[in-house]
Amino acid sequence: MKALIYEGPGRRSWTDVPVPRPAEATDAILRVDAVTICGTDLHILKGDVPAVRPGTILGHEAVGTVTETGAAVTAVKPGDRVLVSCISACGRCRYCRTGAYGQCLGGGGWILGHRINGTQAEYVRVPFADTSTHVLPGGVSDEAALMLADILPTAYEVGVLNGRVRPGDTVVIVGAGPIGLAAITTAQLFTPAHIVVVDLAPARLEAAKRLGADVTVGAGDDPAAAVGDLTGGLGADVAIEAVGVPETFELCTRLVRPGGHVANVGVHGRPATLHLEDLWIRNLTITTGLVDTFSTPDLLEMVAAGRLDPTGFITHRFTLDDMPAAYDAFAGAAATGALKVVLSRS
Predict the structure, then answer these.
(1) Are residues 193 and 242 in the same domain?
(2) From CA 291, how far away is CA 248, in angstroms rounded?
(3) HEC assignment per residue over the chain
(4) pLDDT recorded at residue 48
(5) How far apart (Å, rounded) are the C-alpha atoms in residues 259 and 281?
(6) Cα separation of 21 and 10, whole Å?
(7) Structural domain span for residue 234
(8) Number of domain units in the chain
(9) Which of 29, 62, 204, 277 matches a 20 to 30 Å C-alpha distance to 220?
(10) Are 178 and 313 in contact (CB under 8 A)?
(11) pLDDT exceeds cutoff 80 at 346
C-alpha cells in the first residue's frame, strides 16, 4: 500500500509500505476512505515534535471501513464505517475513566502519526478500536465526519470549553486557520455577543466572516483597538490562541480583560514569554491542553441532526494518490487559500 512517510525534518515521501495487520487483540484494521492533513503534521515536518521518528506514517484523522479486527474487539466489525479519533483511549486507566483520554496511561493518547504509524495511508491499524472509533450514522458524509476527528473537538474542548465562553461574552480568536475557524463555529453554540478574529491572511478572514465572525482584524489593523471599541476599553472575556507562536500567545494575554480567560490551542515549537510582571495582578486564567475528544459523540449527534455542518472548512479535494500535491497545497496556504484538504479513495 502507499503511505506518507516522515523522513526527518523537512523530508517526506509517498511510498510503498506493507499493509498493517492486528498487533494486539484490541486492534482494528481500516481501509482509509477519507483522510486529511493537520497543522500538527506541518509542525512535525518542521522538526517541532521530536518524538516522531523518521520512518513513521503521518496522520491522525480518518474515516474508514473496518476490514479486520482483533479477537477482543466487540464494538465494531468488518464492514462498519467509522470515524477514527485523533486520540486513542485504553478505556481503563485513571485518565480514561474520567474522560481525559488525551492523557491516557494505558498506551493511548495522541499516538497515531506520533508514536505509531498513522492514517495517511491506504490502510491503518487502530489500537483500542472499541474506545477509539465511532460508528457513523448513514446520513453523515465522510467529509463531515472527518472534520470531527480533530479540529472540531480540539477547538471546542481546548478553546471554547477551557475558555469558558458564556452567553454575551466578547471572544477574540487569534488565528483563522482550521482550528480558529472551528472555534468560531463552536463558540456560537454559547451565543457570545461578539466574535473577533485576528489573522494576517485576507482569504482566511473572509472565511472567518462566512463562518460567523462579527469583526475581523487584518494586517495593519490594531487588535487592541478593535476589542476595546466593542467592550468599552475593558478587553475580551475570552481570548483563544490558535496559531502556536510566541507573538500570538502574548497578544492574547494583552487582549483579554482582568478576570478573563486565555485558552491556548496552538502547538508551540518555541518558548513563549509569560509576562507575570504584568499579568499577576489581572486575575487571568490561562489554560493549555491536548484534546481529549470526549465531545466527539455530542458533535456527531449535532452533525447527524443537521445542527452542525463542518464541511464549510473544506477548500481542496484530492484523491489519496495526490497526497504530495495535497501537502503542497496545505503547506502553501498563503498562496492556495487552503483551509482543510480532504483526500478520498475515489
Answers:
(1) yes
(2) 20
(3) CEEEEEEECCEEEEEECCCCCCCCCCCEEEEEEEEECCHHHHHHHHCCCCCCCCCEECCCCEEEEEEEECCCCCCCCCCCEEEECCCECCCCCCCHHHCCHHHCCCCCECCECCCECCCCECEEEECCHHHHEEECCCCCCHHHHHCCCCHHHHHHHHHHHCCCCCCCCEEEEECCCHHHHHHHHHHHHHCCCEEEEECCCHHHHHHHHHHCCCEEECCCCCHHHHHHHHHCCCCEEEEEECCCCHHHHHHHHHHEEEEEEEEECCCCCCCCCCCHHHHHHHCCEEECCCCCCCCHHHHHHHHHCCCCCHHHHEEEEEEHHHHHHHHHHHHCHHHHCCCEEEEECC
(4) 85
(5) 10
(6) 29
(7) 153-287
(8) 2
(9) 277
(10) yes
(11) no
pLDDT of residue 317: 98
Cell numbers standing for residue 277: 510582571
Q: Do 93 and 158 sit in the same domain of this protein?
A: no
The confidence band for 270, taking pLDDT boundaries of 50, 70 and 90, is confident
Q: How far apart are CA 212 and CA 177, in angstroms?
A: 14
pLDDT for position 17 = 98
Contact indicator for 183, 204 with CB cutoff of 8 Å: no
Q: Do 241 and 340 fall into the same domain?
A: no
**Tens digit of each residue's pLDDT (9 = 90 or more) over 33-57:** 999 999 999 989 999 899 999 999 9
The answer to whether residues 86 and 44 belong to one domain is: yes
CB of 290 closer than 8 Å to CB of 158: yes
Cα distance between residue 317 and residue 281, in whole Å: 49
> Residues 12, 4, 69, CA angle at the centre, nearest 5°?
150
User: If pLDDT is split at 50, 70 and 90, which confidence band does 76 have?
Assistant: very high
In the beta sheet, which residues pair with residue 231?
none
State yes or no: pLDDT of 71 exceeds 80: yes
Is residue 334's pLDDT more than 90? no
Q: Does 108 have pLDDT greater than 80?
A: yes
| pLDDT per residue as tens digits for the range 131-148 | 999 999 989 999 999 999
> What is the per-residue pLDDT across 172-190, written as a single tens digit (0 to 9) for each?
999 999 999 999 999 999 9
